[in-house]
Amino acid sequence: MSKAIADVKPGSPVAALPVRLAANTASTEPGLARNPGMKLDLGFLESLRNVNRSALERRAATLAKRRSIKADNQAAWLLRALSCMDLTTLNSNDTDERVRRLCAKALNPLRKDIAAGLGLGETVIRPAAVCVYHPFVATAVEALHGSRVHVAAVSTSFPHGLAPLETRIREIELSVAAGADEIDVVIPRGLVFEARWPQLYDEIVAFRAACGEAHLKVILGTGDLATLRNVMLAAMVAMMGGADFVKTSTGKESVNATLPVGLAMVRAIRAYFEQTGQMIGFKPAGGISTAKSALDWLILMKEELGRPWLEPELFRFGASSLLTDIERQLEHHVSGGRYSANHRHAMA
Amino acid sequence: MNILERYAAMDYDAAPEARNEADAWVAGRDFSTSLFIGGAWRAAASGATFATHEPATGKLLASVSDASTADIDAAVSAAAKALPKWRARSGYERAKVLYAIGRAMQRHQRLFAVLESIDNGKPIRESRDIDVPLAIRHFIHHAGWAQALTREFPDRKPVGVVGQIIPWNFPLLMLAWKIAPALAAGCTLVLKPAEYTPLTAILFAEVCQRAGVPKGVVNIVPGGPAAGEAIVNHPGVQKIAFTGSSEVGKIIRKATAGTGKKLSLELGGKSAFLVFEDADLDSAVEGLVDGIWFNQGQVCCAGSRLLAQESVAEAFFAKVKTRMSRLRVGNPLDKNTDIGPLVNRVQLERVRGMVAEGASQGAECWQPDCALPASGHFYPPTLATSVAPANILAQEEVFGPVLAAMSFRSTEEAIELANNTRYGLAASVWSENVNLALHVAPQLKAGVVWINGTNMLDAACGFGGFRESGFGREGGREGMLEYLVEDLPLGATIKPTSRPKIAGDGDTESPAIDRTAKLFIGGKQVRPDGNYSLAVADAKARLAGEVGLGNRKDIRDAVAAARKGTAWSEATGYNRSQVLYYLAENLAARADEFTRRLARLTGSNAKAAAEEVELSIERLFYFAGMADKYEGRVHAPPSRTVTLALNEPVGVLGIVCGDDAPLLGLISLCAPALAMGNRVVLVPSERHPLLATDLYQVIETSDLPAGAINIVTGKSAELAAVLARHDDVDGLWCVADADSCKQAEAESAGNLKRVWTSGGRKVDWRSDLVAGDTFLRRAVEIKNVWVPYGD
């Protein structure tokens, strides 16, 4: 049974965690051990087939209604959301200048008066990473130099993952060479429908090898996977193959990250943890644009996995417009209840 | 804590729901005049009040008028006075009133929710998201029934003035379950809220005043047990609807015996929560949270007995413990609270005592290390493992956040363990295998079965128990029937049977070979245990023959044979149909013999006797045809779920026949009972038992499996009493004199068997009214099986 999960009691002080180096802290503790993966275990995989959609939807629907984050706590939790953000631009018309703007925003996410109003003092809270296409990796690395904000590159023929394996592996290598220290790969969804688990596993092992020191996030494209059972199984194969994170969506599928899908994935993470002792990260992405929904996701993580999973080493939002809404809410908080407007906050 | 510290901690903080509106309502109200009678507020005649406290703090909330017998008299009078006009209103007019109540409640939804949480202690999330919306749903749903009444229930009329007594665990929701169908049916009512939780009922009465409910139609009388007793015993009340403990339910059953009052009881439970190895275990854990840790476990249908398959039991219990450690116990008005306080000190002490007792009987009780508030009646969530079936925690209803866990090896054992209880309210079945789930659900003795879910409730789906969890259903069509009565063709008063003194000797004219009429038990002709016989007189008081004098041991044996005769209940409707057709066929072949017997025994002329035999065959034929037609329904509650309302046989059914139309009466009762798959223990007419002993020869040639019908001849009143007192008899129908009927009803309280009596009156068996669904409906228990779907 899970030690870490069981040890965290409601209201207990935060356990000291072996965390990977945070983007936004000056911690010098040794990082969280990376997922070494495990042998593809089809028997174990089979035991995870029992995913009841109705029950997961009911749980997801009541999760956020069982918890309420208000006032100072809300401000703190929104800062947490900010710190777990992969600030993202993945548009076909992206340019170097656009990416530089995004990086500038990542470096200075909050207006000074808001940071002061929140009492942050010297502490700088920034997004965990900036997430871009390969051509903009070098630009981002340069713009973020010295900041501890990671650079993530989407890869492996994002968003469909249908280029030859050789090409996809080469893409990872090139992005790592360009300075990306996080690689967000996509899986070919067809492998899930065909239940070609060994092939999927082998590809992920290959991606992981190509990543080297860079952390591997595996995007399942859950909007394409049709069932929560497929989501559960695909997530587990990704973790067996060595994923450091599993991630919901590319943002390009017709259905983005939903709480029921998230629930299936965090339960896969819990099952993997119970089986191996390895803590795997989770990244919902696509369609998360409001502070309220960010809180819902944080509640999901805390309720299902516990406090350790509320660190950027284990939780990320893939988001582009979320930051502005968080800023608005924080301004509302520090201004004593005045509602803010988007244009009062610097755009990315 | 400053924001950075909170940022590091990532804890939840108190998120209190504002209570100022509710406090203002309480402060602004004079609770010394809180009896709502005849549309006006008044003080108790005695001037007495009782105190209601806030469970979270123990503080006094209000001193509320305490209704006494005089006040109940006044309330019943007001209801009786309002009845004719209310009953005479069109369905549309009544529908508008129900709709107005629902919408008015919706406009004050938050006030109801906050007030409920303050008075009862339930977490605000539950009152806000579950209790109050569902209460509103009941009124709006029943508006439709009010309007459709005459079309949907053409042969029925409102029962009249209704007395309703509700518990403290869901004060407003139980009020809605009671009041909405009563108003829809055209009844007027007197409702007594529970002493611990009267406030939302008082607020509801205010809503009624504004929503156009005519004066006297709804009367709300807060009070204690004495007020409840006064309602139950009031001669002006035609029906009692009670939700509460099995103990009080049994007292009410006894008290109403022989009064002709209609009765529905929704009582306690010890509901099983079955987790099979192919279940979604993580979801099943959440099911438990909604099952046993909903409303602090103070839920009659709480899934309080966890049965997990051995192959996954350890892993599952570990998951449950992990989840339990995340439950937050605290202030019910905090939006982050999962478990509030128990309703009062008495309840807290009771739960503590039972857990201690369970532990001393060998259960291992585990509680998470969770902080409890310093004041208030809080009890932590508790998991008891190593619970033997005999342990108090497996047997008795705790009505607290205490889960008793056991494991099972096979599906068969799971069902056996699940049914090893006096109760039969609800059950949950967790499996991803639809074959398994739909195999198990019909075998569970429970009125509600949730597949891969728990505590799902809706106004369109009937709710209610088997066994000692009570009888009657609330919600949906079957719930409406509890407030309606049919026109049964009842006739003259039945006098206690007096067997005439035998005047002459036996038949010496045409000496035939002597025939010994025996009892018929377990498919065999058997001699009576006592080896005594009873002389049977014909219409002219001559000796017509002798039958066995059955005694209580014969009834015992007959019940045991019926209990064993499961083959009949498990047979398909088509199969039962063919057997009953065959029975009719064989009876027809011997129609002349039965006609002669009937004429001689009853003295009716040959034509009348032939008519009775012919009608009996026709009726048997009819019910044979209904065996595969009187089916359940499918409900569509407002979620992605089908709810299957299954008609299941009541089980072992005792049938005591009157002397009037001895063959037709017997067939009219036995045929629907058998058609629906019940196993019958028949006590035929005491005066004319030879018709029944002739009949077993017909039965023997008709492929009825052993135990399907068992015949015990003898003294009806005596045998009826034995049946009524037998706790393995599930139902009892009794056509007899008033005293016997009253006794049958009173003695049935032992196991709360379903009883129908003719109330001491004869039944006109020739009437077509008894050939409809009158007895078919009583021959079944409706089980609602909830099947959420989607993949």
UniProtKB/TrEMBL annotation, chain A:
Gene name of this polypeptide: deoC
Protein's UniProt name: Deoxyribose-phosphate aldolase
Pfam families: DeoC
Gene Ontology process terms (BP): carbohydrate catabolic process; deoxyribonucleotide catabolic process
Superkingdom of the organism of origin: Bacteria
GO cellular component, one term: cytoplasm
Gene Ontology MF term list: deoxyribose-phosphate aldolase activity
Family the UniProt entry places it in: Belongs to the DeoC/FbaB aldolase family. DeoC type 2 subfamily.
Swiss-Prot/TrEMBL catalytic activity: 2-deoxy-D-ribose 5-phosphate = D-glyceraldehyde 3-phosphate + acetaldehyde
CDD domains xrefs: DeoC
Stored SMART domains: DeoC
Keyword Transit peptide belongs to the record: no
Keywords carried by this UniProt record: Lyase, Schiff base
InterPro entries for the chain: Aldolase_TIM (IPR013785), DeoC (IPR011343), DeoC/FbaB/LacD_aldolase (IPR002915)
EC number: 4.1.2.4
Pathway linked to the protein: Carbohydrate degradation; 2-deoxy-D-ribose 1-phosphate degradation; D-glyceraldehyde 3-phosphate and acetaldehyde from 2-deoxy-alpha-D-ribose 1-phosphate: step 2/2
UniProtKB/TrEMBL annotation, chain B:
GO molecular function, one term: oxidoreductase activity, acting on the aldehyde or oxo group of donors, NAD or NADP as acceptor
Residues annotated as domain Aldehyde dehydrogenase: 41-484, 540-758
Top-rank taxon, per record: Bacteria
Coiled-coil segments on the chain, per record: none
Gene3D superfamilies, sorted: Aldehyde Dehydrogenase, Chain A, domain 1, Aldehyde Dehydrogenase, Chain A, domain 2
Pfam families: Aldedh
Keyword terms, alphabetized: Oxidation, Oxidoreductase
CDD domains in alphabetical order: ALDH_F16
Residues forming the catalytic site: E266
Family: Belongs to the aldehyde dehydrogenase family.
UniProt-recorded name of the protein: Aldehyde dehydrogenase family protein
Source lineage: Bacteria, Pseudomonadati, Pseudomonadota, Alphaproteobacteria, Hyphomicrobiales
